[in-house]
Each structure stands twice: as structure tokens, then as C-alpha cells.
From TrEMBL:
Superkingdom in the source lineage: Bacteria
Ranges where the Tyr recombinase domain occurs: 311-508
PROSITE patterns linked to this entry: CB (PS51900), TYR_RECOMBINASE (PS51898)
Name the UniProt record assigns to this protein: Tyrosine-type recombinase/integrase
Keyword Flavoprotein attached: no
Family statement drawn from the similarity comment of this UniProt entry: Belongs to the 'phage' integrase family.
UniProt organism field: Pelosinus baikalensis
UniProt-listed Pfam families: Phage_integrase (PF00589)
InterPro entries to which the protein is assigned, alphabetical: CB, DNA_brk_join_enz, Integrase-like_cat_sf, Integrase_catalytic, Tyrosine_recombinase_XerCD
Key words of the record: DNA recombination, DNA-binding
Sequence ranges assigned to domain Core-binding (CB) in this UniProt record: 194-281
């Protein structure tokens, strides 16, 4: 879109430029030594390249370049040194390019920037000028200046409401959720087919008010994919009213081909699409499908989630952690070292560490030191995590330095880890920069795993590592959940790897008072030595018997946990009025009584009162019945009357 519609720029914007370019700044040559720049000169530099010459630009563009430079310097988005040494040295060649290729434009906003950058690159190459910096895939100073001028004036002259634009800057949307540490703040709808673009914008306008920028960015990406497919299939459509199951099936074929074996992406894309269709249906959008969404997308269309094994957990092995701790002082820039220390000590997300505020992030109690902050993802405010005195000392040092250098302009939100000048002034460090710094660190310091292969560290790996460490050290799962500010214990278990050695150690600790089995010949409990056990099934069986009630039943044992109530009662037949037994069962009763007595004795040895009480109840029922049987009498509480029909019942049964 040409923002200077009809080549007529908005008068109020032109007036704003003219008003600012007054006094000293009307001159076509600016000298960095002039008193006009005294408040913006942060450091001194050599005698060369101290002037900016704007006279080389066409008259229509000259004031735009001046306004761009001056505005950014005054906002501290651009340092005076960079303006002189990077931008000003590009003026001459950039002006020659514009006079040759775009002699009639009124504004940098009139450019087709992609085409212009390609032309500039070719032009510079023909002149033999470098178009890359230090061999990196980065725009040269010439290209960078042209691109920034275009983006600046594309936004400056566009006076429409943000929601009317095809590219939204979420910083201009009240209530939009975006982290200060992230450099991304754009939602781009330009690739969404034009007929469906209003629908996509209206949907995202609803979503941006209560969801994160990351989720909304994913929404736009998936909507672009789906709506482009539908547009290519049905070019005349301006809405989704006629969407059918057949259209969805065709899309699923396309979708499966595109993602192949990328099951997580395939699943997440379909989930987002389903939410989109359900939402526009609930909100009764005019563009919503006529058919109910449950007749378009079925549960069977979604791939099953892949369950991660413990080997998929991205934690940092002990050997790698040791290397990091030994060489952390070599991390560059050094301002990131305290961040890595806190990632390691707390297991918090990098976003939560960067969100810490120097005025309330550290607390000392009678129990010790705590790091305090808000956990944005799960909305746990004023969360605390215990830290050592040494880590607290590092935080105190950072607090002192940051507090001394901060004011209401360069750090209005009191961030602990803050950029005090430049484009990101008043915002936390960029977490991508920290990730890149860690990558350079692992390469330069030769950080390797146990196999000798390079180990590349990601910011989030410290969180996984802390979860593993806490669980392996025996912390209760609910305490780990609280520490990590997880919404549920399942989240904690999802990436906390329990090592086999830890399981063995925990089992040995649980059974340190001894495990026993009944000696069949001697009919008494015998202690089992751990070193004598080779069969893991035996370990499991003895462990279960050690931790459960183990009440002897007719054909086995009651394995109900101690705290779980019994749905019936121990040996219910013995108290049933319909239970009948005769003297021929005397040997069975004698054997049963012996086994129950053995279990009671074992319970006394182990101090398990539950075993004693429940088996004593059974014994108290068995012994009276045995005494009756020894007299040659049948035991049957109901008696003959209860087992025979009498009167009319007898006649009816016949």
C-alpha cells in the first residue's frame, strides 16, 4: 500500500517535520561538536567523521532524513556516534542511487522496499562496494539506512487505526500482551488472501486482548496457511459459509503432505484451526461456516500426541554443568553471567528472570534468602524461590549497579537486567542475544558431553535441569511443583527425569527397616537381605507386601493400601449367616489359623498395628468355629430352617 496516497502526504505530518527541523537543524551540514548535540553526546571519539552532510539528498527527501536522524537521537533510539559513523557515511552513495532510480518520489514511504533493496544491492556491487558487514548475512550500512527510512515513514504517515492496517504494531494496541524483553512486536496480515483478510483481522482483534503475542503470531501463520489453501481451491469465496467436510478433507491431505512426520506441528496447527472455527462460530461471525464445526473437524483428524520418554528431556548432564561452572567467567558479554547464575539456581524461565525488578526481587527471612518475581506463563504473582547466600550476593551487586545507573527515563519499570541506552532503552536484555552468547560460549570454551561431542546449551535447559535435580535429591513432587510454579503435578513429571540410580536409592531408603517373607516350612517371618535379591520381581513383590496391609485371604492376600477403606470386610464369609461348614474342614481351619497367627507375629515384629488388628479380627472368627467343628457339630448360623423350604414355599418350589 502507498502510504502517501496519490502522492499527497498528510499535512499534519509534513507540518510536524517542518516544525522539528528548525533553528540549527535547518542547516544542511550538522557538526557533532556543536552545542545543539551536547545533551546527546555520550562519549568522545577521534577527529574524523564528525559531520553529517544532508545536502546530497534531493530536496523532497532531505527533511525526511533529517527528521529521522534527529527524532531517533532525541529518543535515544540512535546514538550520535552511530548516526555519524554509520548513517552519515552512507548518505552520498544512497543519494546517488535515489537520483538514478527514484528521481520523482515524494517520500521514502513511496518505495517498493523489496525491489528497491535489490536494486541498491546491484548498484553497490557494480560500484565495487561491500554489501555485507564482516562476511555476515546482514544488511550493509547503505541497505540498512534505506530500509529503516522506509519502515519509519511507512508507519509515520499511516494515520489509520492500528486494526485497519495490514501490519499491526502491538505496542500501539491497548491491552495487548507482549514481553518487554522480546524484540518482536509485529502481526503481519499481508500474506493472508485479501478476501479473507478482514476475517483474520477481526479474529485476531478478539484474541490479542487476552492471549500472548506468541500465540497470536502462531494464529496468523496457521490462518494464512488454511485460508490460502481455501482461496486457491475456491477463488470466488469471500467467507467460509459454504465450507464442507470435503474441503476439510482436502486440506488435511495437503496438511499431511506439508508436515510429513512432524507430528507436534501437525497436531498444533489443527488445534489452532479448530479453535478458530469454533470461535467464529460462537461469536456468530457472518463469515463463519454454515455447518457446525463438529461436522467439519473430527477428533480422529488430530494426530495423537507423542509421549516423550525420559531420554527426550533436554536437561544438562552433570559433567556439562561442571564445565559451565568452571568456565562461566569467560561468557561474553559478562553482563549475562548473573542471568545464567539465576537460571541455574532457580530453574525459572528466562522470561521470568528478565522480568525481575531491582526494587523487590530479593528478600531475606529468618530461613534465608529468596528470589522474588512474577511467573507470567502460569500467572503466579510474587513467586519466591530459595537461593543461597552466595547467589543472593550476586543479585545484590547487580541491584546496586542497576539502581545507581537507573532513572525514570532509562529504566521506568525498574528492571534488574535492563538496557539503559539505545533502541532497547528501558527494556530488559533480548533473550535471543543471551541464547547466542551461550552458543558462542560453548564453542569457544569447548563444552562437550560425556561422549566428547559439542553440547549446545539452550536457555530453557536450565529449567529442565533444576526439575531433575530437585526430584533426584528427594524433594516431594508437590514441593517441586510449587518451586517451578507449575499448574499441575503432571507438568512437573513431564520433564523431570528420575534416574535409575535414584529409584534404587529411594527404594533402599524406603526398605531400610527391613523386608520380610514367610518361611513356608517354619511358618514364620524371615528377613530378606537386599544383597541376596537378584530377581527384580521379588524386589517388587517384597516392596509391595512391605507397604500394604497383606491380610491373608482364602486364595491369596488383600493388597489394599493402608489408608484405603475396605469395601467389604476381612474374610466376609466367616460372619455370613449363610456360610455353612462341617467337621471335615477341620484341617483347613487349623492351617488357616496357623497362617493368620504367623502374619500377626510378623506384624508385631515390624510394629505394624494395622496387620495385627485386621488379622486378629479374622482369628477371632476362625477359632470359635474350629471349636464347634471339633465337637462334631455343623456350623451354620441360619440352621436347618434357613436352608429348607417350609409350607407354601415348599409346595411352590416343587
Amino acid at each position: 500500500m502507498n502510504l502517501s496516497v496519490g502522492y499527497l502526504l498528510p499535512e499534519n505530518k509534513v507540518s510536524e517535520i517542518t516544525k522539528k527541523i528548525s533553528g540549527y537543524f535547518k542547516n544542511d551540514i550538522w557538526d557533532a561538536d556543536d552545542t545543539a548535540f551536547k545533551d546527546f553526546r555520550k562519549s568522545e571519539w577521534g577527529k574524523t567523521h564528525r559531520k553529517m552532510d544532508f545536502s546530497v539528498f534531493p530536496s523532497k527527501l532531505k527533511n525526511e532524513v533529517k527528521f529521522f536522524i534527529l527524532t531517533r537521537i532525541q529518543k535515544d533510539d540512535l546514538q550520535l556516534y552511530s548516526a555519524v559513523h554509520n548513517y552519515a557515511r552512507s548518505f552520498k552513495q544512497l543519494s546517488k542511487f535515489l537520483k538514478k532510480f527514484y528521481p520523482h518520489i515524494n517520500s521514502f514511504a513511496d518505495l517498493d522496499i523489496n525491489k528497491a533493496l535489490m536494486q541498491l544491492r546491484s548498484h553497490l556491487s557494480e560500484l565495487g562496494l561491500s554489501i555485507r558487514i564482516y562476511g555476515r548475512r546482514k544488511l550493509s550500512n547503505y541497505e540498512n539506512l534505506l530500509n529503516r527510512l522506509f519502515l519509519f515513514y511507512k508507519d509515520f504517515y499511516d494515520t489509520r487505526d492500528e486494526f485497519e492496517k495490514d501490519i499491526w504494531d502491538v505496542r500501539n494496541i491497548p491491552g495487548a500482551k507482549f514481553p518487554d524483553h522480546d524484540s518482536r512486536h509485529i502481526l503481519n496480515f499481508e500474506d493472508v488472501p485479501i478476501p479473507f483478510r478482514p476475517l483474520a483481522k477481526r479474529y485476531l482483534k478478539f484474541r490479542i486482548s487476552h492471549l500472548s503475542l506468541g500465540q497470536c503470531t502462531l494464529d496468523v501463520r496457521i490462518l494464512k496457511l488454511f485460508l490460502t489453501f481455501i482461496h486457491d481451491k475456491n477463488p470466488s469465496w469471500k467467507d467460509l459459509n459454504d465450507l464442507t467436510r470435503k474441503d476439510i478433507e482436502d486440506y488435511l491431505i495437503f496438511h499431511n503432505k506439508k508436515f510429513h512426520d512432524k507430528i507436534p506441528s501437525k497436531r498444533s496447527y489443527l488445534i489452532v484451526l479448530n479453535v478458530f472455527l469454533e470461535t467464529i462460530e460462537k461469536l456468530q461471525f457472518d463469515e463463519a461456516p454454515a455447518l457446525p464445526v463438529n461436522l467439519l473437524l473430527f477428533r480422529e483428524d488430530f494426530p495423537r500426541p507423542i509421549k516423550k520418554s525420559e531420554n527426550d528431556i533436554k536437561y544438562i548432564p552433570e559433567g556439562v554443568l561442571q564445565q559451565i561452572e568452571e568456565k562461566l567467567e569467560f561468557l561474553k558479554p559478562s553482563k549475562y553471567i548473573p542471568i545464567i547464575v539465576l537460571l541455574r539456581a532457580t530453574g525459572w524461565r528466562i522470561s521470568d528472570i528478565l522480568n525481575l525488578r531491582y526494587d523487590n526481587c530479593l528478600e531475606q527471612t529468618s530461613q534465608g534468602w529468596y528470589l522474588c518475581g512474577d511467573i507470567k506463563k502460569t500467572q503466579v504473582m510474587n513467586h519466591r524461590a530459595p537461593i543461597t547466600k552466595e547467589v543472593a550476593g550476586i543479585v545484590e551487586a547487580v541491584i546496586k549497579v542497576t539502581k545507581d545507573q537507573s532513572n525514570t527515563i532509562n529504566n521506568p519499570k525498574n528492571y534488574l537486567f535492563v538496557q539503559l541506552e539505545g533502541v532497547r532503552r528501558g527494556r530488559p536484555y533480548n533473550y535471543y542475544d543471551i541464547h547466542r552468547s551461550l552458543r558462542r560460549f560453548t564453542e569457544e570454551q569447548n563444552i562437550v558431553d560425556d561422549s566428547g561431542n559439542p553440547f549446545f546449551i539452550k536457555n530453557h535447559a536450565f529449567r529442565h535441569t533444576k526439575g531433575v535435580e530437585l526430584l533426584n535429591n528427594g524433594m516431594n513432587i508437590l514441593h517441586v511443583q510449587k518451586w517451578m510454579a507449575h499448574a499441575s503435578p503432571e507438568m512437573t513429571l513431564h520433564y523431570a527425569k528420575i534416574l535409575d540410580t535414584t529409584m534404587r536409592k529411594s527404594w533402599e531408603e524406603a526398605t531400610k527397616q527391613g523386608i520380610f517373607r514367610i518361611d513356608i516350612e517354619n511358618k514364620r517371618p524371615v528377613k530378606v537381605e537386599l544383597t541376596d535379591i537378584e530377581n527384580e520381581d521379588i524386589i517388587e513383590w517384597e516392596y509391595i507386601r512391605h507397604n500394604l496391609d497383606a491380610v491373608k485371604m482364602e486364595l491369596g492376600y488383600c493388597m489394599k493400601p493402608i489408608k484405603q477403606p475396605c469395601p467389604t470386610q476381612a474374610n466376609p464369609c466367616l460372619s455370613c449367616r449363610n456360610f455353612c461348614t462341617t467337621p471335615e474342614f477341620i484341617p483347613k481351619f487349623e492351617t488357616e489359623i496357623k497362617e493368620v497367627r504367623n502374619v500377626i507375629e510378623r506384624g508385631k515384629v515390624l510394629g505394624r498395628q494395622v496387620w495385627i488388628d485386621k488379622n486378629q479380627t479374622t482369628l477371632d472368627r476362625l477359632e470359635p468355629i474350629l471349636e464347634i467343628l471339633k465337637t462334631g457339630t455343623t456350623h451354620h448360623l441360619a440352621g436347618k430352617k434357613g436352608r429348607e423350604y417350609i409350607g407354601e414355599e415348599h409346595t411352590h418350589e416343587k
